[in-house]
Amino acid sequence: MSIKLESVSKYYGEQAAVRELSFEAFPNEILGVLGPNGAGKSTTMKMICGYLSPDSGSIQMGGESISADPLKYKAQIGYLPESNPLYLDMYVREFLLFCAGIHGISHKKKRINDLIEMTGLGKEQHKTIDQLSKGYRQRVGLAQTLLHDPAVLVLDEPTSGLDPNQLVEIRQLIRELGREKTVLFSSHILQEVQLICDRIIVLNDGKLVANSSIADLTTSQEYASVVEVCFEKPLSLAEDFSHVDAALIQQLTTSSYLIKSNTADILKKELFDLAVRKQNRIMALSESSSSIEDIFQSLTLSES
Fold first, then answer.
1. Each residue's pLDDT tens digit in the chain (304 positions)?
2. DSSP assigned state of 62
3. CA neighbours closer than 13 Å in the CB half-sphere of residue 226
4. Strand 29-34 vs strand 182-186: parallel, antiparallel, or unpaired?
5. Which of 130, 241, 277, 294 gives a 20 to 30 Å CA spacing to 220?
6. How far apart are CA 13 and CA 10, in angstroms?
7. What does each C-alpha distance from 74 to 27, 31, 143, 153, 186 come to in angstroms?
């Protein structure tokens, strides 16, 4: 089920948290929501879930305004907030049975058994929630979010606190869920967004500054490649290497540099020529595409 925002704005007093925001999340898609602190991500997610009402604009689910029948549309959303509130004195299975009762789910035990297996809670299901690590509490929150089999999942920092092995498992679970649901995924871990999401939107100061696949964003960057070079002896590359604007050179150590470029092949040849002229051997040289961190910084710093 699609989610569509059209010119949505939200104010807290005179401060705009979200400004004229428009985008659409499609079925069978994982949409990443990125932005620095205060960009409007959590406010946007709370409006989609019906927890907050927009001051202007409209939010549609499946082509219909969610304000027409709020309870109907809330019942089709699973929301995992960053804070992940849980009843810590309850046992895992007890808590999920309690939540299933609130949703009025039939065949509660079977549904909970399936979710415990799906989220990897089998070994922890007979513990109280306060005995669980943060990673396993995240799993309990995710199981709770999936209990009523919602068409739309809104996940705010769902991989927070997971160890590397847990990350792989939950990442795979979210990818599988994205094949049959509409998933909005917010995270500060940019590599997780890159590995999980089909498309991303970037918010900054409450406004939409990007809406594209990561591959398209990478190719659209002003400088598509980053070359890292390490020389045997110290040198001042900004002074000795006039072929590149000094602003595009980042010094890492006295003898190593990062250089942004659109002509990496030419740049590498000229670096070798420089090494010959200066009698300063190149000890290491590598090339990489602009990373998602580079993209994020270019969008949020330049637009702020």
1. 899 999 999 999 999 999 999 999 999 999 999 988 889 998 999 999 999 999 999 999 999 999 999 999 999 999 998 888 899 999 999 999 999 999 999 899 999 999 999 999 999 999 999 999 888 998 999 999 999 999 999 998 888 777 888 888 888 889 999 999 999 999 877 778 888 999 999 999 999 998 988 777 766 665 667 889 999 999 888 777 766 776 688 889 999 998 887 778 888 888 999 999 999 999 999 987 666 676 777 777 754 4
2. T
3. 16
4. parallel
5. 241
6. 10
7. 17, 19, 17, 11, 19
Residues 141/84, Cβ–Cβ less than 8 Å: yes
Amino acid 201 reads I
Joined tokens for residue 237: 């590359």
- Start-to-end CA distance of the chain, whole Å, equals 33
- The answer to whether 256 touches 271, Cβ cutoff 8 Å, is no
CB 57 within 8 A of CB 18: no
Give the Cβ contact number of residue 28 at 10 Å. 11
